Amino acid sequence: MTNTAHIPQEDLALFAMQTLSEKESAVVREHLNECAACRGELATISGDLALVALSAEQKPVPEGARQRLLDRIAADATPETNRIRPAVAITDARPPRRVYSFIPWSAVAALILVALGLLLKIGSLQQELLRKNEQLAQTAAANSHAQEVLDVLTAPAAQHVLLVAGNTRPAPTGRAVYLANRGGLIFQASNLDALPPAKTYELWVIPANGQAPIAAGLFRPDATGSASVVLPPLPTGVAAKAFGVTIEKAEGSTTPTAPIVLAGAATNPGL
Q: What pLDDT, in 10s, does the model give residues 172-191?
C-alpha cells in the first residue's frame, strides 16, 4: 500500500466492530501502522460507534448471537467480498457529515440548561419560604407575649399594688400587677433615684406562706427615674403577701439587702 491509497471506510468500520477475519484484520493493522490518515479515520469511526452505543438502550446480547452473525456473513459473502476492497482515497469515500445529526444532542443540552435553571429557581424559592416562616414565627412569638401581658393586666384575679417610698418628694413609686396562678408579674416604677454603676434595683415577691422572698428581676431607671419589669420568670401558684424593692450589687442578690426602698402589701392572696 502507498501513502495515496487508504483502507475504505466500510472496511475500517468492520475492523472497528471486529467482524473481519484474522487475515483481513492483519492486513488492516499493517496498513494502519504506516498510514496516519487511516488511523485518524479509524478513531473517528470508533468514536461514532461509541456514541451510538451510549445512546442506545443497553441490553445483554443473547448467547451465541455474535457467532451466528459472523457465520451468516461468511455464508452470504463471495470470495470477492471476503477480501479487503480496493483502496480508495478517504477524502473521496467519506460521506459529508450532516449538521442535523447533532440536533438531538443540542436538544439534550438545552434540556439540561432548563433543568439547571429550574433547580436554581427552586432553591431560591425554598430560601424565601424559610425567611417567611422565620418572620411568621417571630410575629407569632411577639403576639403571644403581648397577649400574655394583656392577660395579666386585665385578669380579675390580678393584684394591683402601689409601692411608695418614705418621706422624700417627689416620692419614688412602683405599681405591681401580679397573677399568682400564672406566675405573671408586671412592675412599673417612677421617680427612682439614679444608682452608681456597681448597684442595681431588685424586685422581690414576699410569699403569703412565709417562705423566703423570691427574686423577681433586676432593673435600673432611665434618666427620668422610670423603670419596669415585665413577666420575669416566676413559679406559678405562689400567693403574694407583699412586694418590695431593694438596692443590690450589680449582679443581684439571693436575699433582700436592707433597707427596702419600696414596699407594698397585697390586699388578697390573688390566686
A: 999 999 999 999 999 999 99
